[in-house]
């Protein structure tokens, strides 16, 4: 038999499910950031105006920093020692 009783435990199923849901939520978060970058108002506020093309553009450096620093912020925010106090104070 492919799946023996001792090979699959409830904790293994729980851990696998938790990792799958976490991966889905992280991808969902990435899509939300991409949607923000695609908005005209975001481009006008954080972009630069090109007079030759008569349009607003985001600089490539800004876009790459915006995408990579988001992950670093999530790691730092999730492991910060005062996270519990912040959650208690603001109900997050």
Automatic annotation (TrEMBL):
Keywords from the UniProt entry: Signal
UniProt key word Signal: yes
Signal peptide positions on this chain: 1-23
Entry protein name: Uncharacterized protein
Organism: Penicillium argentinense
């Amino acid at each position: 038999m492919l799946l023996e009783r001792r090979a699959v435990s409830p904790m293994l199923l729980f851990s696998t499910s938790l990792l799958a849901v976490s991966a889905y939520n992280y991808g969902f978060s990435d899509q939300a950031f991409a949607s923000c970058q695609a908005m005209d108002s975001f481009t006008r506020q954080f972009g630069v105006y090109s007079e030759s093309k008569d349009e607003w553009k985001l600089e490539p450096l800004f876009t790459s920093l915006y995408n990579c620093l988001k992950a670093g912020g999530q790691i730092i925010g999730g492991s910060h020692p005062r996270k519990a106090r912040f959650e208690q104070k603001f109900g997050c």
